Every structure is written in structure tokens, then in C-alpha cells.
Amino acid sequence: MKPSPPHRALRFLRWFCREDYIEEIEGDLTEVFEKQYEQSQAKARRKFTWSVIRYFRPGFIKSFNTSYSTNTIAMFRHNFLLTFRNFKRYKGSFFINLIGLSTGLACALLIYLWVNDEVHMDKFLKNDERLYQVKQNIPTADGPLTTDGTPGLLARTLIDEMPEIEYASSAITSSWFDAQNGVISIGDTHFKAKAQMVEEDYFNIFSWNIIHRGKDRLLPDKYAVLISDELATRLFQRTENIIGKTITWKHEDFEGEFHITGVFEKPPANSSTQFDLLFNYEFMLEKDADNLEHWGNSGPCTYLLVKAGTNIEALNDKIRDFRKTKYKALVGTKYLEHIGTLFLQRYSDQYLYDHYENGVQSGGRIMYVKLFSIIAVFLLIIGAINFMNLSTARASRRMSEIGIKKTVGASRKALMFQFLGESMLMTLLSSMVAILIVALLLPEFNAITGKQIELSFSKEVISSILAITLITGLFSGSYPALFLSRLRPISTLKGKMDFSTGEPWIRKGLVVFQFVISLILIVSVLVVYQQIEFIQTKNLGYNKDNIMSFVREGQQDTGAEAFMNELKNIPGVVQASTFGHDLVGDYGGTGAVVWEGKKPDQRINFGNLEMDYDLIEMLEIEMVAGRSFSKELGSNRTQIIFNEAAIAAMGLEDPIGKTIKLWGQEREIIGVAKNFHFESFYEKVKPCFIQCYPDLQNILVKIKAGMEKETLTRIEDFYQKHNKELPFDYRFLDEDYQALYAAEQRVSALSKYFAGIAILVSCLGLFGLVAFTAERRLKEIGIRKVLGSSELGIIKLLSGDFTRMVLVAIAIALPLSYLVTREWLKNFAYRIDLAWWFFISAGIMVLLIAWVTVGIQTIKVARISPTECLKDE
Length: 873
Hints:
Elements: H1 7-16, H2 19-39, H3 41-54, H4 66-89, H5 91-119, E1 131-138, E2 145-147, H6 154-161, E3 165-172, E4 182-186, E5 189-193, E6 195-198, H7 202-205, E7 210-213, E8 224-228, H8 229-236, E9 246-250, E10 255-264, E11 277-280, H9 281-287, H10 289-292, E12 301-306, H11 312-319, H12 322-330, E13 341-346, E14 356-357, E15 360-361, H13 366-393, H14 399-407, H15 412-449, H16 459-485, H17 489-493, H18 503-537, E16 547-551, H19 560-568, E17 573-579, E18 588-590, E19 593-594, E20 606-611, H20 615-618, E21 623-626, E22 639-643, H21 644-650, E23 659-662, E24 665-673, E25 688-692, E26 698-703, H22 708-722, E27 731-732, H23 733-739, H24 742-776, H25 778-786, H26 791-825, H27 836-862, H28 866-870
Parallel strand pairs: 6-11, 8-10, 20-25, 22-24
Antiparallel strand pairs: 1-2, 1-12, 1-13, 3-6, 3-12, 4-5, 4-9, 7-10, 8-11, 9-10, 14-15, 16-26, 16-27, 17-26, 18-20, 19-23, 21-24, 22-25, 23-24
Helix pairs in contact: 1-3, 2-3, 5-13, 5-15, 5-24, 13-16, 13-18, 13-24, 15-16, 18-24, 18-26, 18-27, 24-25, 24-27, 26-27
Protein name: ABC transporter permease
Membrane topology: Multi-pass membrane protein
Domain ABC3 transporter permease C-terminal: 374-487, 754-866
């Protein structure tokens, strides 16, 4: 049996080699191969393959359908030249299309970058698919309250009893510490830093990058700590060779000396969790075991890594009543109805899906992601509609070209390819301009959105830009390609355009669609602005003006009372006091309040606000009954103040002087405060009580109006005297309040820009339709002018149809905008009423803008001489 040459090399030779050479070359190579095969098979195969490759050169390569290739290249060149000439000849249409498409694409790209950043939050974690957090629905009088807090011993119990769970860890996050940063010190160097307390398995659940570590476990004892590379550089000017070094940590809740056992890479910007230090959870567990080791209390977060293939729905069913079962075994049935049920949420979903109502997930940031994604699509459609309208509007100028091409045999498919090519080229140019616009606007866009987005040309970004460009180009060119390629050669050569009955309605419908979207955006802007104004001006039940706050921390060399007395004596300081929480949603809570007449099954969750003396007076919280706390009148630790909502919920009449039990201790009601907002306007004012605890960490200072600048300088000098080398971080109370509605303010700002862009691009589309109509009716206009029509009459004639289109858009958009804005306002417990003038003023605004747009073109047409209109006749 003769040896066979390498089949792949032989197939390659037969594929490329010319017919007049193939037989001779193949025979020679095969003969040589057979001779060499007897000496060495491997060498013969290599020699044959190398010889085939050497023949792969122009003299031996056959023609691959050259005529087809030449025709294709010629067609591309011809279409490109025609497109370029049309762009150059009709500069007005070219620039209108370029502005419309590039503006729409720029908006879409900006929104894409923002949405891409939002949806990728926490997705970088290695175990993302299996990483879950345990949440809890706690029964209250107003329905289930969803919280992150869980019993401190839940994690270790779950890992022992649930085989589906691979790792579990309790964690005390930075929010546990009232969002205060602690102070880390080494020698005379002090920094503020954000900390978490975690268990050893935390590092098996979260894939944080550990840069350096000791030989032992990461958290071998309760005084172990890991620090971020960023903090290590600040403390030691390096990240290497610091294992075993000691740092001092001071915080209101815990302090001490800790030894470094590891250095981790600081969480990236797309992590919703940010921290500088990781302490051992055992430290806090030992300090507060009574609370953390009881099934009746909640506090730490619980994170799980489930095993691959775990059925999450089945696991949810198993853990739902897990806490109740443990509590019942420990305590019995007393207060069992107040114990919450557990469920799992994927960790990376929490950022977007963070809002719950009645224990059911009901949105969150995902609402704005969807909203702006829809806006991006609509802005692209509006820009594409402009191209459609202007392309068909200018069709009369290309009738001869289309007619001649069809006469000499051009197929409809070839013409469609030509017009789609024009669309793709225009979209490609617009994309380049759009990328430039995005690069210029990105810093401002980041300032509005609070992001740190960069225009990095990664594979994902490039592919997304190309996909957006391709889809936009095909969509915007589809209608002109179908319409222009359908024209009959006889009609086009006679200068006539055949329109089907539905043709004008399609173009008019496209313009109506543009204005419907624009009008909805304008109404939305008005409503969002009015709601934000309402939030800013509504009486909160306290006075937040000229009140700043900072945290008492660091190496203070005086006692708390002396510190506060010295602060109060600073010129420009009207009053100073302390607060255990804040007035923007950070407060404690409990249901452990017992009063006379309380029903056995009655459950009310009370907010717990801890204040110092004089804070009620400084905030100007009104007392509707009784009095506030006073140093001169009795022991304030046995006294308590409720708000009106709490008194109403408890059903107490004449509450002053009555006694209640809080956590088993008797408290005398000395006052009832008028309801005030200690949360955002998304929530109704809840029942709360106020306790008096002097010398708390959060210091609030009321500054005399008109003396803010110099007083702040004095307070900073005072702070630095007691806290050397620590930066003076302060906030004004109204800034904290504004931060509650940062998302709404960003939506308001972005909506203004997008609404303006939508109406601008829509007007360009209207301009295109006016131009189209004017060209079609040019001879009619000339005849009317010959017969005596005035310019005003011509203007009325041309603008009438467009006015009706805008009125139709208004009629469609106003009910839709009412439904959209009403749904958005439902998120607020306190909101504006949708007044009629929001909608009427928006409709009038759009109508006036449309009249101006139409007027510019119709006046121009109305002034054309009849001779110019009729010269072809």
C-alpha cells in the first residue's frame, strides 16, 4: 500500500493552486514524498507540507471569482461616492441628521455607561452565583419590616444544621457604628477609617484579594486585624513587612490595641461595601454576648455561601421559621408572634433591589436603571426618526438617479443596500461625534450621578458601541430603503413620486411619536421638580437651618462635660448638644414597650431616639403636652417622651405622668412631642420615643446666622486643639437631609437635559417633515400665489397639518404622563397633588416650540417667487 501525503496539506494545495499547474506540482511532490517516506515518515510529512507552503505565492494561486469581487468592490466604491456627494450637496440635511443621531447616540452611550456600572455592582465577586445574605421580616402593626439584622448566633447554627450551606459568617458592618468612622493611631499618626467585624469564614465567602498574610489564620485571636493596602500605605508608607505591627483603634463602641495579621486590596469602586479594616467578630461577641447570643435579638448581618446546585427556594422554605423554632425552644411562646421570619437574597442583587414593602421585594435602584434605559432607547428612536423623515423629504431630488438605475437593471435589493449603506455611514460618523461628546461631558455627568465612570475602550464597551451603532443604522435606514427602492422608474423619470395611501400617515405618526415622548419627559421634569421643592419647603417638625454636626472622637484631653462647655462658649455658637443617632433615618428601634391597656397581640415598633439636654429646644421641636428633659427636674434616665404618632398608636389619653415599661424598666411619660420627620418622605412618621442620654458622640451645633464662616473656623481650631492631626469632618443638617433625596435630585437634573434634547431632536424631525411637505407642494404654492394667495395664507396652509399633529401628540401624551408621574409619586408617603397646570403648561410649551420650528420653514417657502415654483412647467 502506497503511503499517502498529509491530507490537509494536499487539500490546501488543491484549493489554491491554478488548474494548469496542479497536476504537475502534485505529482512531483507526491513522488518526492514516497522516496523520503522510506527513510523517515515524520521527515517526509514535514517536507511535503513545507513544499506546499512554498508554492503558496501569486504565480501559482488561482483566481477566486475575480469578476464578482471586482463588481462588488466597484459597487461599494460607487455607493460610497454617491453618499459622499449627497452629504456634500445637501449640507443642511447632512448636519441635521448628524446632530440628531450623534446627540441621541451620545445620550444612549452615557446612559449605557451608567447602567453598565450600576448592574455590575458587586458582580466581580468570585462566588457571586452562590453568595447570599440572610434577611428578616419582622412583624409590626404596619406590616412586615424587612431588615438586614439577624441574631448573632445564626451563622454558626446554620452551618451546623443546614447541609446546603458551605460557609456562613456573621458580620458587623460599618452601618452598625451609626455610620461613624473610628480613629486608627500609630504613634503620633492618626487617621479616620471605616471598619467591619467578621468571622474567619468571611474570607471563604467573599473573594477579597489578600495581598499579604501571616503564617497563621487570618483572624487567629480577638485582637487580630486586617487593613487595606491604601490604609497601610498611609500608616507605614508601604504594604510589605507590616505583619505583626500594632495599631490602636478608638471608637465609641469599642477600642484597644490590635496586631496586623493581613493586608487586603481595598474593595473596588463597583463594590457596595467599602471598608478599611476587618476586626475579629469575637471581640464584639465577648463584649456584648447577652445581645448577640440570644435568639430574641437582632443585629449583625449573616452571609452565606451555598453549595453548588442548591435549590434556593427549597432552602428558603427551610430557614423561614428557623429563628422562631430556636426562640421557642429557648424562651417558649411568649412574644413568639413578634419574632421575624428569615429569607435569602443574593448578595449582588441587594444594590439594585433594596426596597421592600410588606416583606415583598418591590424595586429600588433598579427602577431608575429601567427608567433611563427606556429613555436611552426613546432618544435613539427619536434621532433615527429624523433620519427617516429627512431622507424621504429629500427623495424628490433623487428621483432621476433612482429611475435611471432601475431602468438599466438595478434591482430593488441593490437600491436597498445603497440606502442602508448611507444610513450606516451616517450612523458611523454620528457615533464618532457621539464618542467625542461623551468624552467631553463625562466629568460633568459623573458629577451629576455621583459616579467615577471612565470611557475605557474594553472589549465589552467597544462591542456595545458597535451593536448600538449597527442597530441604530439599520433601524434609521430601513424605512427610507424600503420607501425609495419601491419607487417605479416611469414615475420617477417623470418627476413624480408614488405614495401609497398610508405613506403620509407613517411619517406623521413618527413625528407624533417623537412629540409624545418629549412631552412625557417635560411633564416628568415638572413633577419631579415640584416634588423636590415640596420636600425642601415642607415643615419637618424641626428647624434644620444653620445646624452643623461632627463626631466627638480622637485623643481628647478633657472630659465630655468640659468639652461641651468650652464649645458652647465659642463666639457665634448659639447652642450645642449631642445626639445618639441622626434625623435622616438612622435610629434604633424596639417593640419592647408595655403600657396599661396594651393588648396581648398588639405589636408596635417604636423608633428610639437618644438625645442630650437642650437638643429638643435647639431643634425647635414643639411639645404638644408636658415638657422636655431638664437637668433641674428629676432623674431623666427614668423619664421618656413620645411623639403624637406613638401616643395615638398606644391609644393613651392624658398620657403625661403615666408609667410605661421599656425593656422591663419603668419610665414616666413627661412629654408628648409634635410629630416630626426623622426619616425621608418615603415613610410616614412612625411612633417613636425620646430618651435622655447626656454626652453622646454626635455633636450638633447651632451657629448664629450671618456668622457661619468665622464660627466654623473657630470650631475647627477648637477641634484641632483636642484632636491633633485629625481632619475636621463636619456636615450641616440640611446637607444630610438633601442626601436623602440624592437619587431624586439626580433624576431631576438628568431628566431636564434629556427632555431638552428630546424636544430639540423632535423639532429637527418636524423640520424634516415640513421640508418634505413643502417640496411636494411647491407647484401648488406657486399656483396659489399666482391666483392671489398671501404669504400669511400660505403659512396657515402649511402649518395647519403640523399643528394638528402636535395637538394629537398632546392628547396622547398628557394621559400617559399623568399615569407615569402618578406611579412615581406613589413611592412617597408625603407628596404633591398632580395639578392640571403641570400638563397644560407642558402642552402649551411644546405647541409653541413646534410653531416656531414650523414657522421658520413655512415663512421661507411662502416667500419663494411663483416663477421659481413653476419654472419646470
